[in-house]
Design a protein that fits this description.
Blueprint lengths: L4 H13 L4 H6 L2 H6 L4 H21 L3 H9 L4 H28 L3 H22 L4 H8 L3 H9 L5 H24 L4
């Protein structure tokens, strides 16, 4: 059931985050936010947590499936927890990419296209790695969201996967913050 989720999230998450900053820049309401007694990193973090809250609400509707499995049989709790941890990691990573893409432009459609393209590249890396020679294939596969998503979804809790989600999210949130701060100088 959760196997196509990385591909679904490549469309869904940029669509949810495309208005986060682009509409603020387009309508000029970013000036109101900038004059409030809050820092830029708090604005970025607030929009990030709002996006994660919306994704979390959507994912909460899938809790019916594990509950149904618990009623019918005896599913592996480690695998169920691993699936939801991988969903959380994927959502955090793609939401950070979507916010960064939204901060790059004033047009929300362009923000969606940029966010989708970057998310789709990270999704396709595992497929591209299949056509590369040995060591290079492993290196490229290490950047793929699919490899880290499936490892956690099998119930294998590996710190490399958690580190991948955390550093990828932090990198794109830092890029978003730098983009928002650079708007002050224009």
């Amino acid at each position: 059931f959760f196997r196509p989720l990385p591909l679904i999230f490549t469309f869904l998450v940029p669509a949810l985050t495309m208005r986060s900053f682009s509409e603020e820049f387009k309508s000029g309401t970013i000036e109101y936010l900038a004059t409030l007694p809050i820092e830029d990193h708090e604005i970025v973090l607030g929009k990030y947590l709002a996006a994660l809250g919306m994704i979390g609400l959507l994912v909460a509707f899938t809790l019916f499936y594990p509950l149904a499995l618990l009623l019918v049989g005896r599913p592996d709790p480690g695998q169920l927890i691993g699936v939801y941890v991988s969903i959380l990691g994927l959502a955090c990573f793609f939401a950070a990419i979507g916010l960064w893409a939204s901060a790059l432009t004033r047009n929300q459609v362009v923000a969606f296209i940029i966010g989708f393209f970057v998310c789709f590249v990270f999704f396709l890396l595992s497929r591209v790695a299949d056509f590369l020679p040995g060591l290079l294939a492993g290196f490229v596969r290490g950047f793929s969201v699919d490899a880290h998503f499936e490892a956690l979804a099998r119930g294998v809790l590996d710190t490399r996967d958690l580190f991948y989600w955390a550093t990828g999210s932090a990198f794109f949130l830092a890029a978003c913050l730098a983009t928002v701060q650079s708007r002050k100088w224009r």
